[in-house]
């Protein structure tokens, strides 16, 4: 069973709209999460990480974390066509240094 | 940003043949990783290494070997390539004091 579940599998939002992506880990040894963005044909690029309960904002991107439920979410406001990509959530186990990735959410922003 | 390069960038291999994928980083990172990505899916860890001359099994090591002859270089070896190993392979590296992994551009492998 996939240890990191992402939802939805795909999402279409209009330009200027809000995109909300979810991620949950079933592994209690997870310490924090990374969000990566991968444009088609490219390698994953780190977007944001979140270590503590609560919210972290960087520009148009906001990440939430609930450590008790091992759930994180990424919210993109004022979405742009250039935000269209595969968004990958990675759960980090700092004991092993390993990242476990979910299958991602494909975001399409329609002009 | 950290520089990680991979070679070749794409390869066509025959079933049963040997394939070697190479990764090179110039950032003095201790940790290096090999992942595979199947179309429309996330990344799965194959092998990783904390230090030169030592490798560790990841989550899906079967059918793969790894070699870390130096801090800068990390290879992934498919001794007997199979159709199911068709995928994009990414190498990544990170420093000892951070959990940020930097990815290479990927190698697209097609096994026929």
* Alpha-carbon distance between the two ends of chain B: 36 Å
Q: Whole-number average pLDDT of chain A?
A: 93
Largest sheet of chain A: 6 strands, mixed
Uncertain regions of chain B: pLDDT < 50 for 5+ in a row?
none
Indicate the structural class of chain A.
mainly beta
Proportion of residues in extended strands of chain A: over 45%
Task: Return the string of H and E elements of chain B.
Answer: EEEEEEEEEEE
Give the number of helices of chain B. 0
Number of strands of chain A: 11
Distance between the termini of chain A: 37 Å
Beta-strand segment tally of chain B: 11
Helical residue percent band of chain B = under 10%
Query: Radius of gyration of chain A in whole Å, from Cα?
Result: 13 Å
What layout of secondary structure does this protein have?
The complex is a heterodimer of chains A (111) and B (112).
Chain A: E1 4-7, E2 10-14, E3 19-25, E4 32-38, E5 45-50, E6 54-58, E7 61-66, E8 71-76, E9 85-93, E10 98-101, E11 105-110
Parallel strand pairs in A: 2-11
Antiparallel strand pairs in A: 1-3, 3-8, 4-5, 4-9, 6-7, 7-8, 9-10, 9-11
Chain B: E1 4-7, E2 10-13, E3 19-25, E4 31-37, E5 43-49, E6 56-57, E7 65-67, E8 73-78, E9 87-94, E10 102-103, E11 107-111
Parallel strand pairs in B: 2-11
Antiparallel strand pairs in B: 1-3, 3-8, 4-5, 4-9, 5-6, 7-8, 9-10, 9-11
Structural account:
The complex is a heterodimer of chains A (about 110) and B (about 110). Chain A is mostly beta strands. Chain A has strands at about 5, 10-15, 20-25, 30-40, 45-50, 55-60, 60-65, 70-75, 85-95, 100, 105-110. In chain B, a hairpin with a 7-residue loop joins strand 9 and strand 10 (about 100-105). The mean pLDDT of chain B is about 95. Chain B is mostly beta strands. Chain B has no helices and eleven strands. The radius of gyration of chain B is 13 Å and the shape is globular. The chains are: A mainly beta (about 110), B mainly beta (about 110). The interface of A and B includes residues 42 and 97 of A.
């Amino acid at each position: 069973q996939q240890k990191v579940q992402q939802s939805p599998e795909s999402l279409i939002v209009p330009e200027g709209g809000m995109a909300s992506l979810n991620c949950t880990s079933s592994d209690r040894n997870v310490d924090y999460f990374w969000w990566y963005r991968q444009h088609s044909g490219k390698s994953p690029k780190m977007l944001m990480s979140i270590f503590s309960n609560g919210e972290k904002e960087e520009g148009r991107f906001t990440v939430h974390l609930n450590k008790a439920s091992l759930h994180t979410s990424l919210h993109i406001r004022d979405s742009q066509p250039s935000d269209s990509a595969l968004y990958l959530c990675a759960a980090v186990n700092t004991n092993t240094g390993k990242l476990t990735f979910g299958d991602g959410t494909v975001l399409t922003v329609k002009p | 940003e950290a520089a990680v390069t991979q070679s070749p960038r794409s390869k066509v291999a025959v079933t049963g043949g040997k394939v070697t994928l190479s990764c090179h980083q110039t950032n003095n990172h201790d940790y290096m990783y090999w992942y595979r990505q199947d179309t429309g899916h996330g990344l799965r860890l194959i092998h990783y290494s904390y230090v030169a001359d030592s490798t560790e099994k990841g989550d899906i090591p079967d059918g793969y070997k790894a070699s870390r002859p130096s801090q800068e270089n990390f290879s992934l070896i498919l001794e007997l390539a199979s159709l199911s190993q068709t995928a994009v392979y990414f190498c990544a590296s990170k420093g000892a004091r951070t959990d940020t992994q930097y990815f290479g551009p990927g190698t697209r492998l097609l096994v026929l």
